[in-house]
Design brief:
There is one protein chain. By secondary structure, this protein is an alpha/beta fold. It has one domain: Udp-n-acetylmuramoylalanyl-d-glutamate--2,6- Diaminopimelate Ligase, Chain: A, domain 1 (3-Layer(aba) Sandwich). It is 41% helix and 17% strand. Strands 1-5-4-3-2 form a five-stranded mixed sheet, sandwiched between helices. Helix 3 packs parallel to helix 4.
Length: 109
C-alpha cells in the first residue's frame, strides 16, 4: 500500500507536499524515544510518534521510512515540515490515538 492510499483510506491530513506519498509501506512502528526507534524500526515503516521536532525527519531518512504519522492532531512545528519537504518524507496527522492508529493501519494492510 502506498502512503497516499493509507492517508486517503484512514482520512489522515497530509501536512507535507506530494513528494513521499508514493512510497510503499512495508510495515509500521510506534515509539517516541528516537534512539529506540532507530534501533528497532525498519525500512518502509510508517512511524507513529508524538514527537514533532525536526529530529524525527532525520531518523525517518536514516531508516528510509515510508512516512511519519502524528496522532491526536498534535500540531507539528513548521521547521519539521520544511525539513520533511526537503527530504521527501511525508508527514501525516490524525485525530486518532496511537493505539487506534495501530489497529486501523494493521487492518488496512
Amino acid at each position: 500500500m502506498k502512503v497516499k492510499d493509507l492517508a486517503d483510506k484512514l482520512g489522515m491530513k497530509i501536512l507535507t507536499g506530494e513528494e513521499g506519498l508514493e512510497k510503499e509501506i512495508e510495515g509500521g512502528y510506534t515509539g517516541d524515544l528516537l534512539s529506540w526507534v532507530m534501533s528497532h524500526a525498519s525500512k518502509g515503516d510508517v512511524w507513529i510518534t508524538v514527537q514533532i521536532h525536526p529530529n524525527i525527519i532525520a531518523v525517518a531518512v536514516l531508516l528510509e521510512m515510508a512516512a511519519i504519522i502524528v496522532p491526536e492532531d498534535i500540531p507539528v512545528e513548521a521547521s519539521t515540515l520544511e525539513k520533511a519537504n526537503s527530504e521527501g518524507i511525508a508527514v501525516l496527522q490524525s485525530p486518532d490515538s496511537a493505539f487506534e492508529l495501530c489497529a486501523k493501519i494493521k487492518a488496512a494492510m
